[in-house]
## 1
Amino acid sequence: MMESNLIKRLQQKTVLLKLKMKVKKKVMETIREMVERQLKIANDEFQASKPTHSPIPAPKITLVDNGPPTTKPDDLPEEPLISPPLELFITPISQPIILSTIPPNPLSKDKGKGISLN
């Protein structure tokens, strides 16, 4: 009888271990599926954030021949290539600078003292 109880317990433990293994396997599959879904969502968001329009093409440069120049270089007027010095633009002041004195403030404690601008 003891042997039969022992066999039953071993069978129960075996069944429990098999169930645990199935649960672990199912949990691992679920985790893998969740990770795959999250990766797909992240990849889709990344692809959606990329610009969908094609880049603007560079402008094409086309050379145009208008014939010979209308003015010969020798016919151009002689102009200075450098702007004149600054002192040529400064004009002297023709009016004299008037110096004045500010009268003393009658409400001030410093009677008789004025400010002179010299």
## 2
Amino acid sequence: MALCRSDAIRSAPLDAAVRPGRVAVSAAHRHRFSDKKKDIFSPNYEMECDEAGTQVDDEENNRDSGWITKAGGALGAQTPASKPTAEAPTPGCHGFGDIKKNIIRASKMPPLPRYETKIVVRPRGGLCISKVGPSVVAEAIWEAAGLDPGERNSDTMCPNPLQNIMVVSTPSQENVKHYVNVEAITVAGQDPEVSAYVAAPHATCKGVIRGIPLSDGPEAIDRKTVNARNPLALGAKRIKSTGVVIVLFDGYEVPNYVSYGGTLIKCTLYRKQIDVCYACGRLGHRSDFCPTPDASVCRACREAIQPNEHDVCEPICSLCGGKHLTASRDCKHRYQTPYVVRRRRGLRARAIQARSPSFDVDASIELNGCHHQDQPGPSATGGRSRSRGRSKTRGGSKSRSTSRARQKSRSRSGARSRSRTRSGSRARSGSSSRPDQGRADAAGTCPDTSPRPGYKYASGLQPSTAVHANEDQGRKKPNLT
């Protein structure tokens, strides 16, 4: 029988020593956690972040200008921000899957011009954009960049409360240099540091290569990657002090191999990891850009930790409900689905959906057209029809029939029609011929209604279906009895 989180914590034995896989917390903290459920979302836990195509990367602590490769870049998708959940989910419930969806859904931004350059500005030192005000932070950034109102007239500043960042969209490459060089801003008499870098341009994707020597610097990595052997590569940079390098490609396809200095290295699709803050315990931002860095929260159960008071609590992941730390390496839900994959799935689904209705419509048109051709009737009011045909009976006997019809009738509305029918038939077996309306059904196919070249009909007569089906016989004069 599956137990909920609170029941599992109450029934678990508590030891003075910390067991493997458990986190030390206070006794009072354990008691609070077992008695009530806490919401991992705070009232301000809403955000709008990047576009479906360009994702904001986890940049390094050292200063990096970002992806300065070409003019352009896009951030924005018209997805409404999600609302915080009322209760923290428990293991075995449906809430864990919704948490990840809420984080991704809340990480969308309003649509910005796609082909403008995007600069991400991350404030440090505990500066909270939501509390200070986005307009105040925007004015501070413009002042630190040294841009006059006339020079930044075409620029757009968009806040991201959940990630605690500001996104600048500008069409001017000169303004990009000013924004990237900003190191600190002045807000409310304080000078907090900021980290500014250029986001990846629009219509690009990222791949990962591993095993790159640590002795290769940024210039060497860029020279060995961005060359004629890799025509789609736009830039490359290392992740911290590891042998992993992220390569930016033009378009939405990541090659299987990348030539690094003449050596083919396997390249895999880059997957963005969901950010988790080790300071406040919330999802969506990192601890180095946390707006409340002084809050000490247990990473296992997201409760406040009292200093010098420790006890044992079993970790539970906020993303999947597993018995591990939130977004740890053991969590299978810590990665977001790359935009390249989501875009490919969407195109495939739209292609299937667009192909199925058209096939049904074409088939119905074909069937309806064949059905209407088989039905007898005058082509127009007051028109005359003449048909001569030959048909086969089911028993194999052949019959020849020639018919000439002229009809004229007078209706209540004043329409007049006249008909005259002459028919003659001769059958070898003595059986009667099939009516005109059944000739197409007996043949099993829809006759061709196009006029035969070289054959002229009498003036004023419009050929019917039976004429073309028995045209050779129609040239002979019928023997009328």
